[in-house]
Every structure is written in structure tokens, then in C-alpha cells.
TrEMBL record:
Naturally occurring in which organism (per UniProt): Marvinbryantia formatexigens DSM 14469
Region (Disordered) residue spans: 245-266
The organism's taxonomic lineage, starting at the top: Bacteria, Bacillati, Bacillota, Clostridia, Lachnospirales
Name this protein carries in UniProt: Uncharacterized protein
């Protein structure tokens, strides 16, 4: 039954109406269709609760749609690990210890046997220092070089930002170079060996005559590096200016040093050591300049034409010949295009007891009885 068919109830004065269900028929309906009809006839308001017998559920209208009212359930405290309460018992001074997954037990606070099992005792030491407090290790404790040793006397050299030792920390001879002339084991300022230079350790001495470098050992001058000296001996390098002159000369066109003037060859010279001697010449030559009656066994102007040219080219016969090169006779003649056209235009003639199955147009057929 729809709401349009439901009738209202009129109560006479003095009577009290008592019903087992709510007087407002909107609170309880039979089907979902009746619930939705409340919206259609504009009988639903925001917050209206309606129980539908068909589904056995209660719904509330929120102004735009029906929301199902979910029935609440009683709270049940979980019993899984992490939700269990503190265990009963225990005495003052005791602590709670783990007794399994999510459970605990009371135990004496001083009983830490399990907690410290395998731990390092305070009696242990590091580089002689007990573990009773924070330990600070010095460079000597770890075998490291102290920072105060960097660049100091008896310490270690430093490196600059390019990875090199600063000049201030290098020996003096690196920057202290003395030039002079070595003679008889002594260094002099002048090439004439007049003023002697006293030898000092930590300095480099350069002999300007040989360009070799020396150091003072305390008693004598010792070669630091056996440098190459210029000269023209087996122990020296050749002068670069002379070497360049020789190289430039080798690149220019020239005759060897032992070259001789050209000598005209002479047929009559028989001295084999002479430059004019002609090797491998024939014993004699034909008269009148070498003309011969035959060439390779062929008679000139008979087998060999007078205008023949001798080359290294091997004759190759052509694959075709021009028509002008062919001589016609009674049985070998050319046919012109006009003759071929005339012959092709003649009718085909057939002789037989029956007509042919096919024949070109214009053909003549003769039946022979």
C-alpha cells in the first residue's frame, strides 16, 4: 500500500489513541519502494529514521540519499600480544621483564645476569686506558703521526694543494745553484781559474764548460747526473747548428761528393774501365744502317704490307661487320624493308581435303577432291 492510499485517523474529543506502533507511518514501512516514496511526496526530512521490514534495517535520510544505520557492537578488549595488562603481584623495587611475546613478569632490579651476559667488563683496557669512562686516544696510541710533526724539524713534509712538497720544506740545494768552472778538482768563478769557490754541502755546482752538475761531498765534487756535453767526440753530442746545416744540405738537390762529369759513350772505345765504354754492343751491324730483306721470317712488302705498323696489340676479330663490307652474289643478297613488306602482304594459300581450323585474314583455301 502506498502512502497515497493510507488514510488518516480522526479521534473524537475525550478519547485517547493508543497504538502498538508509532502513529507517524513514516517511521516504519514495508518495502524499499515505500521508503523511496517518502522522498517523492516530500514527506522525508533531514535526519528522518525509517525502518524497512523488507530488509530488516533502519535508514536515515541525509537530505540527498538514504544512509544505512549500522548497529553498534560491544567493545571487546584484544588479547593479542601488546594488549595485555601488567601482570598482578610484584613488590617494591622490582622491575617488569619480558616473559614471552607480549607478556611480562616481575623480577628483582639487581638481577642483570642475562642482560650483561657477554658484555665487555670494565676491567678491560684500550691502550692501557680502563673502560670506566670516555676514552680519548692520542696519535701515539694509534701509531699515527702527530699533527705537530707536519713541516717541523724531525717531522714529516707536507703537500700543497697541487700535491707537491712546498719549496720552504725542500733542501737548500734545490734552489741554490752555483755556476763556475771546474778545474783540477776545484771550482772557480772565472774561466781563467782565478777565484776559487769553496765547496758547501746542500748546493749544486754547474760547470759552464761541460754543463755537468756536481755536489760537494765534503772532500770532492761528485757528478750528480752525467749530462750530455756538446762536442765532436764519442762522449759528446754533436753541435745542433752544424747538424741542421747538414740536414738542410741533404734535402736540396745535389750530386754526391765523389760524382764525376758525364762522359760521352764512344763506340770505338775498347777499354772496359773507361766511362765511355759501351757494354753489350753487337760484334757487327748490317750494311746501310741495318735494312733487312725479312723481318721475323716475313718478306717486307710481300707478306708484310709497306704501310704496316708493328704494335704490341693482339688482333681481336669484331663481333659484327658493317653491311658495306659484305660482297653479295647470286645466292647471297640483302632484302630491303620494302621487299619484306611486299612479301609479308601476300595472301596465305592452303591446299587440302578439308578447310583449316584457323587461317589469317585474306588467306586462300583450295579443296582437293
Amino acid at each position: 500500500m502506498s502512502f497515497a492510499e493510507k488514510k488518516g485517523i480522526t479521534v473524537a474529543s475525550g478519547f485517547k489513541l493508543q497504538a502498538e506502533a508509532p502513529i507517524d507511518a513514516r517511521y516504519v514501512v514495508d518495502t524499499i519502494a515505500e521508503r523511496d516514496e517518502l522522498v517523492t511526496i516530500r514527506a522525508a526530512y533531514d535526519g528522518l529514521d525509517v525502518f524497512v521490514k523488507e530488509t530488516g534495517k533502519k535508514y536515515m535520510w541525509d537530505g540527498s540519499q538514504w544512509e544505512e544505520n549500522v548497529t553498534g557492537t560491544a567493545y571487546t578488549h584484544p588479547t593479542t600480544p601488546g594488549y595485555q595488562h601488567l601482570p598482578a603481584g610484584g613488590t617494591a623495587g622490582q622491575v617488569l621483564k619480558n616473559n614471552g611475546n607480549g607478556t611480562g613478569q616481575w623480577a628483582d632490579e639487581t638481577d642483570y645476569t642475562e642482560e650483561f651476559n657477554g658484555k665487555v667488563p670494565v676491567s678491560r683496557k684500550v691502550n692501557g686506558k680502563a673502560l670506566t669512562a670516555d676514552i680519548t686516544l692520542s696519535a701515539a696510541d694509534t701509531g699515527a703521526i702527530p699533527a705537530t710533526s707536519k713541516g717541523s724539524a724531525g717531522g714529516v713534509a707536507e703537500l700543497d694543494n697541487t700535491g707537491k712538497v712546498p719549496a720552504a720544506q725542500l733542501p737548500s740545494y734545490v734552489d741554490d745553484v752555483i755556476e763556475g768552472y771546474l778545474n783540477a778538482g776545484k771550482f772557480y768563478k772565472e774561466a781563467a781559474h782565478t777565484t776559487e769557490i769553496a765547496g758547501e754541502s746542500g748546493k749544486i755546482y754547474v760547470d759552464l764548460q761541460t754543463e755537468k752538475t756536481y755536489r760537494w761531498s765534503g772532500t770532492t765534487y761528485v757528478v750528480i747526473s752525467d749530462t750530455i756535453a756538446l762536442g765532436e767526440t764519442a762522449s759528446s753530442a754533436y753541435r745542433g747548428d752544424r747538424g741542421k746545416t747538414a740536414y738542410d744540405h741533404s734535402q736540396a738537390a745535389h750530386a754526391p761528393a765523389n760524382a764525376e762529369p758525364n762522359v760521352q759513350s764512344d763506340w770505338n772505345v775498347n777499354d772496359t774501365s773507361s766511362d765511355a765504354y759501351i757494354k753489350n754492343k753487337p760484334e757487327s751491324l748490317p750494311a746501310d744502317g741495318g735494312n733487312a730483306d725479312t723481318v721475323g721470317g716475313h718478306t717486307v712488302e710481300a707478306d708484310v704490307p709497306a704501310g704496316a705498323k708493328f704494335t704490341d696489340t693482339v688482333y681481336q676479330h669484331p663481333a659484327s661487320h658493317a653491311a658495306s663490307m659484305i660482297t653479295q652474289d647470286a645466292t647471297h643478297r640483302f632484302v630491303s624493308d620494302a621487299e619484306k613488306t611486299a612479301w609479308s602482304g601476300k595472301a596465305n594459300v592452303y591446299f587440302g581435303s578439308d578447310l583449316p581450323d584457323t587461317a589469317p585474314a585474306g588467306s586462300l583455301c583450295f579443296l582437293v577432291v
